Amino acid sequence: MSDQVLVDIQDGVATLTLNRASAFNAISLDLAKALNDAAEQVAADSAVRVVVLTGAGDKAFCAGGDVPSFAVSKQADKDLAEITLYLHTAISRLAHMSKPWIAKVNGVAAGAGLSLVAAADLAIAKDTCKFTSAYTGIGLSPDGSSSWFLPRVVGVRRATELYLTNRTLNAEEALDWGLLTRVVSADNLDDEANKLAAQLASGPTLAYGKVKKLMLYTQTDSLESQMQRETRYIAECAMTEDAQAGFQAFVNKQKPEFHGR
């Protein structure tokens, strides 16, 4: 595995760390490839029950694309097409895997960094973080699934404002807009993210996977189609060991133990 993305797996929690702190964890081709490899690894690993994505250092979660390399390239179009191929495949793997993934935002999230935050199932950030689209500020349109996830998370009007004006949101604004699910002090980020990851890692993974699929289809399908999907998924969940454990625990007034099967 490349050192561009560090992978650490402990107690069912896989932590993926974008590891270019000196470049504010900007996404180069090598990093995009490494993220895709890491996403494939953790999505396929049955021992992994939750994924946490963060950035190295304390200044940036991800500052977007590696703009200095684009500036000197004679084929920036081909470079970006190749980078997004791997980045988008990685995001698709994370979005469609059954296990939840958390963005642990440890610093600025700009461009593709903002996209990753919007794409995550949950996002927790320290209170000093800043968020900006930045794409049109350098003459580009969005990538990294941003145009799909961001309008669903914050609404079309607000997403359009972020794209057209490159407005910067502070952490509290990002929370208010729905981009984040939790804001904590810098000193508490690791502890709070670890607690959340541990909670999800001990949960009913297969049910979480159905929730993720339902969320992907909501707002893009008809009410009747979504309800049919709900019927199919809840019936499938009912036959899992986790659901059987949940039924028995409820009846016996106990806390259920889930094993992700």
Automatic annotation (TrEMBL):
Gene3D superfamilies: 2-enoyl-CoA Hydratase, Chain A, domain 1 (3.90.226.10), Lyase 2-enoyl-coa Hydratase, Chain A, domain 2 (1.10.12.10). PANTHER family: 1,2-EPOXYPHENYLACETYL-COA ISOMERASE, ENOYL-COA HYDRATASE-RELATED. It holds the Pfam family ECH_1. Keywords: Lyase. GO terms for biological process: fatty acid beta-oxidation. One of its GO terms (molecular function) is lyase activity. Belongs to the enoyl-CoA hydratase/isomerase family. It comes from Aequoribacter fuscus. InterPro entries: ClpP/crotonase-like_dom_sf (IPR029045), Enoyl-CoA_hydra/iso (IPR001753), Enoyl-CoA_hydra_C (IPR014748). This is Enoyl-CoA hydratase.
